Amino acid sequence: MSPTVGILALQGGFEAHEKIVRSLGAQAREVRLPRELEGLDALVIPGGESTVMTLGIERDGLAQPLRELVRRGTPVLGTCAGMIMLDRDHLGVLDVATERNAFGRQLHSFETDLELSGLGGGPVHAVFIRAPWVRVCGARVEVLGSVDGHPVAVRQGKLVAVAFHPELAGESRLHELVLGMNGGRD
Ligand code: GLN
């Protein structure tokens, strides 16, 4: 049976992630309710607006079930606002503090090719849209890539968080990375 990847679909750019997940031969399941988090092989938290996503997570009772999913060892990929949702000040599962809209108000978006450690196959084409960066990094957090000295891709165990949008560039290696971690499912 092909693995199932949940995509948090409260708000933001979840559809592009579904396409990437399906291109890897996995099932994509939109997640809006706590019970839809059950039996997942991995979860993606997409970009969007972190303030709106936070309200949605609270409203729909998803905060605790999301933390439990992480505690069970389910791999998670957070992109852009998804990275913010995982941090110390939101779900509190990834030991980083993020700075929202860190690249400045003028520079709303930019693209760059970024080498990520541990990811073979050449640089990732990274699309940044009003992106955060990681301001403070806990001891267990591995920095996979930075822009101007600011971490924009990090990993802590089975959590991978990037400040950019791999899905908008058709980049599937980060999704593949978290899918490949599901050997220890539950
Ligand atoms: N600026 C948004 C926020 O702070 C994130 C933008 C994105 O996810 N592309 O929530």
Please describe what this structure looks like.
This protein is α/β, with parallel strands linked by helices and 186 residues long. It has one domain (4-184): Rossmann fold, CATH 3.40.50.880. It has five helices and eleven strands, in the order E-H-E-E-H-H-E-H-E-E-E-E-E-E-E-H. It has helices at 14-23, 50-59, 63-71, 81-86, 173-179, and strands at 4-8, 27-31, 42-45, 76-79, 96-99, 109-114, 124-129, 133-137, 142-147, 150-156, 159-162. The strands form three sheets. Strands 2-1-3-4-11-10-9 form a seven-stranded mixed β-sheet. Strands 5-8 form a two-stranded antiparallel ribbon. Strands 6-7 form a two-stranded antiparallel sheet. The longest helix is centred in the first third of the chain and has 10 residues, at 14-23. The two termini are 17 Å apart. The mean pLDDT is 95. Glutamine (GLN) binds next to helix 4.
List the SSEs and their pairings.
Elements: E1 4-8, H1 14-23, E2 27-31, E3 42-45, H2 50-59, H3 63-71, E4 76-79, H4 81-86, E5 96-99, E6 109-114, E7 124-129, E8 133-137, E9 142-147, E10 150-156, E11 159-162, H5 173-179
The chain binds glutamine.
Glutamine binds next to α4.
